[in-house]
Amino acid sequence: MPQDSTYIFIGANGDTFYLPLEGPGQGITVSPFKTVRAPMGEQKQVADWMGNWLFAIFMSVLLIRLFFPHIFRRLRLFFYSHKAKAVFDDRQPDYHAILLQYMPYYRSLPPGQQERFVRRTVVFMTTKQFEYVEIEPEERMPLLISATAVQLTFGLEHYLMDHFEKIYVMHHDYHFGFNSVPFQGHVTSEGIYLSWANFLKGYDNYMDGDNVGLHEMAHALAYVNFNVDDGRDDGFHNRFIRFSETGRVVFENMQSDVSGGFLGRYAASRYEEFWAVCVENFFERPTSFKIQLPELYAAMCLVLNQDTLTRNILLSPVENV
Ligand SMILES: [Zn+2]
């Protein structure tokens, strides 16, 4: 797995505003509190009343957005649920065909589970904002990226990773921050970033334990469960503690293994990477994983509530669609 980065980066100039001290705008003075004398009358009173209400609504939305982002996202999800249903009703056959073509996981699902998978994928897709950076958007892009998130969380009740509103899609490897090694994808508090060429490669070869889509979604899932309180799945959160009782032991043992063993050296670099690489191998090489690291494989099944080596995949039913 090439280098990526997880979690918080504050760019040197990413969100800085400044006013030029010299240049064309020099010397211009703007008064923010300019007063305008308006004619009196009933028409003006109505206009003032409407203006006050609009201002109050605008400020309320702004304050909720700023100080209670999780409430804002819940409201947003409520409004988007109708759109998701309409999209599902209209596009299900086409989405089914695309998922069959690209996703081995989807092909392995029983028919009833396939419909549930598409429903979840459509809801995930309609609640996210996809930003395309130097690449032409295609319909399959948001669908397949959303499907990757749904694959990882298919055994969980809460699968929307609410904190992340934006998913950025780049064309190829890209440079980020001061890192000299190009990235295939990364996750920050601002969003999930994926390079499309590498995303597709992950599914072209679904047997090598290298899948940048699953890797970054694993980081994103950990982020919403342990770094922010916005999108947590309580079952996953609690079971992850039990997963780590096994995972930490394997991770510590890897520190003295030059080869890195079955999971490789990148998994030994940080526990966050260990988790993400476990996810990649859990889905792409389950049989080898189970033979090489049986206790860790069992812990993965429990924490994700699924096992792709079983017929029904889910270990216990999930009530939420
Ligand atoms: Zn990573």
UniProtKB/TrEMBL annotation:
SUPFAM superfamilies: Metalloproteases ('zincins'), catalytic domain (SSF55486). One of its GO terms (molecular function) is metallopeptidase activity. GO terms for cellular component: cytosol. The keyword Membrane applies. It holds the Pfam family Peptidase_M90. Gene3D superfamilies: Collagenase (Catalytic Domain), Glucose-regulated metallo-peptidase M90, N-terminal domain. The keyword Iron-sulfur does not apply. It comes from Paraflavitalea soli. The chain crosses the membrane at residues 49-68. CDD domains: Peptidase_M90-like (cd20170). Keywords: Membrane, Transmembrane, Transmembrane helix. This is Zinc-dependent peptidase.
